[in-house]
Design goal:
- Helix 5 links the parallel strand 5 and strand 6.
- By secondary structure, the chain is of the alpha/beta class.
- An eight-stranded mixed beta sheet has the order 8-9-10-7-11-12-13-14. Strands 3-2-1-4-5-6 form a six-stranded parallel beta sheet, with helices on both faces.
- The chain binds nicotinamide-adenine-dinucleotide (NAD).
- The site of nicotinamide-adenine-dinucleotide has 22 residues, from helix 4.
């Protein structure tokens, strides 16, 4: 495969998120096709990208043999079907999260991509956030000591969704990060929540995960909350670290705080508080990094199967949490 800049990309879905993907792929590769079922969206897209083919039917794009890769930014219920059609047509696929709403469907997509040696990459944006990469570096280098627990807070008043609950809409972000940081599949996953505003759509979800290593994780997901929080906390035996995406500058704060036992106190737990500091975090646009990673994989650079398998782990966990939510 040639350089990333010559890869021909087709994009389906030009609503709120799609134009961000269009801008990046136009700058990084060849934006060859734009697809949306809405005539207004198509008109806007054609005006913005006069050299691209614009259509309302994905089949037009899939029939073009010169298209190497397809990006899907349509509503969640359409992801599986569109990704499957694109893989069947021999295209590499970047699909917004989650690529499927059932683990069995995701497994089918992963198998299809593997059999054809195609990229199937879910758009887990936070995995490309330089602050999340910093958390991973701190964990993997051993700087935090043994990691004990991780928890995510993703709360705000609104946006109130009526077609997907807080777990699928908000939790997919935290879950992708938690699984990436811990690099383990949860052995136990429970969730509780309530549908206060729209029947059957949980607005507030509390979830708990336990991993084979003994680590635990929690997510508080809500659009019924006075606080706007976008925060992930990692508690290690030696240090603790917080990624707060609401902070403009100090995105990551490391706390040299830990419990410890002094010999002269006969085994009683004491706490130690040292420096609190914020490392410099790269300001690169996470979506840019995500698009670049996809193009590198398409160009044959990097481990193709891993992104698909990691995405499947997220969908499996979401499915188990959903079963628990419904059973409660
Ligand atoms: N990574 C992120 O941070 C992030 C942020 C926002 C949205 N998203 C994801 O992006 C996706 C789209 O979300 P959105 O907020 O842009 O939705 P949206 O409703 O604003 O846009 C979806 C667009 O897809 C079009 N569409 C629907 N079915 C189609 C089909 N079969 N073929 C072609 N076009 C079709 C619609 O006409 C619409 O223009 C979702 O999966 C969402 O989860 C991701």
């Amino acid at each position: 495969m040639a350089a990333a800049s010559s890869i021909r990309v087709g994009l389906a879905g030009l609503g709120y998120w799609g134009p961000n993907l269009a801008r990046n792929f136009d700058e990084l590769a060849q934006l060859a096709w734009l697809v949306d079922t809405s005539p207004e969206r198509r008109e806007e897209a054609q005006a913005r990208y006069p050299d691209a083919h614009v259509t309302g039917d994905v089949e037009d794009m899939l029939a073009d043999d010169s298209v190497d890769a397809v990006v899907i930014a349509t509503p969640v219920p359409t992801h599986y079907e569109l990704a499957k059609r694109a893989l069947d047509a021999g295209k590499h696929v970047l699909v917004e999260k989650p690529p499927a709403t059932r683990a069995a469907e995701m497994d089918e997509l992963v198998a299809l991509a593997e059999a054809r040696d195609l990229v199937l990459m879910p758009g887990h944006l936070l995995l490309y956030h330089p602050a999340v990469l910093k958390l991973k570096e701190l964990i993997d280098s051993g700087e935090l000591g043994e990691v004990l627990c991780v928890y995510g807070n993703r709360q705000n008043l609104g946006i109130v969704r009526t077609n997907e609950n807080a777990l699928w809409s908000l939790g997919v972000h935290d879950l992708s990060v938690i699984l990436y940081l811990l690099d383990e599949e949860p052995e136990h996953a429970v969730a509780h929540g309530r549908d206060f505003l729209t029947e059957g759509v949980e607005d507030v979800v509390f979830s708990y995960l336990r991993f084979p290593s003994g680590k635990i994780a929690h997510m508080h997901l809500s659009w019924l909350d006075p606080h706007k929080m976008r925060r992930i906390t990692v508690v290690g035996r030696e240090k603790m670290v917080v990624f707060d995406d609401m902070e403009l500058e100090r995105k990551v704060t490391i706390y040299e705080k830990a419990p410890w036992k002094r010999a002269e106190t006969y085994g009683e737990w004491q706490t130690r508080t040292g420096d609190i500091y914020s490392p410099k975090i790269d300001t690169a646009e996470p979506l840019r990094l995500e698009c670049q990673h996809f193009l590198r994989l398409v160009a044959g650079d990097g481990e193709r199967a891993k992104v698909a398998q990691d995405g499947a782990m997220v969908v499996r966990a979401l499915e188990r949490l959903t079963e628990s939510l419904r059973a409660a």
